[in-house]
UniProtKB/TrEMBL annotation:
InterPro entries reported for this sequence: BMP_lipoprotein, Peripla_BP_I, PnrA-like
Major localization class: membrane
Designated name of the protein: Nucleoside-binding protein
Highest taxon listed in the record's lineage: Bacteria
Gene3D superfamilies tied to this protein: 3.40.50.2300
Pfam families: Bmp
Domain ABC transporter substrate-binding protein PnrA-like: 44-347
Stretches that traverse the bilayer: none
UniProt-listed PANTHER family: ABC TRANSPORTER GUANOSINE-BINDING PROTEIN NUPN, TRANSCRIPTIONAL ACTIVATOR PROTEIN MED
GO cellular component: plasma membrane
Annotated compartments: Cell membrane
Membrane topology field: Lipid-anchor
Family that this chain belongs to: Belongs to the BMP lipoprotein family.
Native organism: Actinomadura hallensis
């Protein structure tokens, strides 16, 4: 049954969360007294939070849609670059104790925390976006996973077809298996359409456990300069908010840059160089977030993993700006070959 609610927005600091959560313990969530049943959605962002104009903003778009169309209450909280799993657990426990149900952890780094906390709150539904290994535990936990390699394959093909120097590059935020899937698909797609294309050694901004590579734009700027100096005239980034530095630097140099997660052609932070954004590899995180909230709202929640791929339009490439219009037929042919299984896209570089 659909439940109508008024909308509120709560802002909570990380410090307050940790203190409050430690005081709350592991009690079952208080869903409120008498009267109308309510749904209060809690969403914990990945590093960068709302406003990163990439991965987190795609999740935020899904939350905003749920707020508008389902009229739910929401609370959203951002992560800190140096936080631990314990910090994430505290954040999730606080939201659960406050009666938020469902609760969403945005980013693979929430996988362990969600799996652990969900066991203590069996009546609360949880979602991990980009779950580590696409695996979650428990009857009240779901995972939204994306075929990043498939979408990256298509923008890799676009990069090779558009390159004039014959050299292209890839910049990843943090060297983890998730981001390696972007690299693997990108390189395979480029080689498919132009076997002799030179792909510069991939540059990762940081190594785990340092996740600042998803946030520090100066790191993206410096990495982009290095690949431009090495002759790349198309560079693809999978670096979250740090990728804004990549886009601005490559755009200012008059070369092609490829965005990620959101259609970055339309993001205000890069408006001055948007005509240098060749395309973006789009992950429809907004759809996954909305679908999950709607499923709980309508008592149709299903535990386990769901894959968002090319076939389900969970990933794809952006056409804003018209820069890939002349090669779109080739990209669409490759897309259909991936969907049919004719092309097997690698997930490791």
């Amino acid at each position: 049954m659909r439940r109508g609610l008024k909308m509120t927005l709560v802002t909570v600091t990380g410090a307050a969360l940790t203190l409050a959560a430690s005081a709350c313990g592991g009690q079952e969530a208080d869903t409120g007294g008498g009267g109308e049943d309510t749904i209060k959605v809690g969403l914990a962002f990945d590093i960068g939070g709302r406003g990163d104009q990439s991965f987190n903003d795609s999740a935020a778009a899904g939350l905003d849609r749920a707020k508008k169309e389902l009229n739910v209450e929401i609370e959203e909280i951002s992560a800190k670059p140096d936080e631990s799993d314990a910090d994430k657990e505290s954040r999730l426990r606080l939201m659960a104790n406050q009666g938020h149900n469902p609760i969403i952890g945005v980013g693979f780094a929430y996988t362990a925390a969600v799996n652990k906390v969900a066991k203590d709150f069996p009546d609360t539904k949880f979602l991990v976006v980009d779950a580590d290994g696409c695996k979650v535990e428990g009857p009240n936990v779901a995972a939204a996973c994306f075929a990043e390699a498939e979408g990256s394959y298509l923008v890799g093909a676009a990069a090779a077809l558009k390159s004039e120097s014959g050299k292209i590059g890839f910049i990843g935020g943090v060297n983890v298996p998730l981001i390696q899937r972007f690299q693997a698909g990108y390189e395979a797609g480029a080689k498919k359409v132009k076997p002799d294309i030179e792909i510069l050694p991939a540059k990762y901004l940081t190594q785990p456990p340092n996740f600042n590579g998803f946030q520090d734009t100066s790191l993206g700027n410096e990495a982009a300069k290095g690949q431009l100096d090495a002759g790349a005239d198309v560079i693809y980034h999978a670096a979250g908010a740090a990728g804004i530095g990549v886009i601005k630097t490559v755009g200012a140099a008059g070369k092609w840059v490829i965005g990620v997660d959101s259609d970055q052609y339309n993001q205000p932070a890069v408006a001055g160089v948007k005509d240098q954004i060749l395309t973006s590899m789009v992950k429809n995180v907004d759809v996954a977030v909305f679908d999950f909230v709607k499923s709980v709202n309508e008592d149709k929640f299903e535990a386990g993993s769901k894959i968002y791929d090319l076939k389900s339009n969970g990933v794809g490439y952006a056409t804003s700006g018209g820069h890939v219009d002349d090669i779109k037929s080739q990209l669409e042919e490759l897309k259909q070959q991936i969907i049919s299984g004719e092309i097997k896209v690698p997930e490791k570089p």
